[in-house]
Amino acid sequence: MEEKIRNNRMVKVGLVVSAGKMDKTIVVSVMSNYKHPLYKKIVKKTTKFKVHDEKNEAGIGDTVEIMETKHLSKDKYFRLVKVMEKAK
User: Fold this and answer.
1) Are 87 and 19 in contact, with CB atoms under 8 Å apart?
2) Nearest by Cα to 34 from 75, 73, 3
3) Which of 21, 39, 54, 62 is most enclosed, with most CB atoms within 10 A?
4) Which CATH number describes the domain made up of 2-85?
5) Three-class SS of residue 36?
6) 46-81 CB burial, b ≥16 within 10 A, e <16
7) Mean pLDDT of successive 10-residue stretches along the chain, which has 88 residues
8) How far apart are CA 15 and CA 62, in angstroms?
């Protein structure tokens, strides 16, 4: 969706695709667009990140803002900044 840098930390906006199966962890899907190097078409790419959610406040379908941080586990190196929009 969108990304920007704050204090050399990557900030991304994505959609929660999994919550509640792990304690204090959610899985966020971030979509990005890029131009294919050979065919010059716009291609959508989806990347999933495991995100630390200290208060377990995000649910499936929520739009959230996440920020890069130090490694909290083997593959969890983002933390939840805020829930931008709750799922309906």
Assistant:
1) no
2) 3
3) 62
4) 2.40.50.140
5) coil
6) eeebbbbbeeeebeeebbbbbbbeeeeeeebbbbbb
7) 75 95 95 96 97 94 95 95 93
8) 6
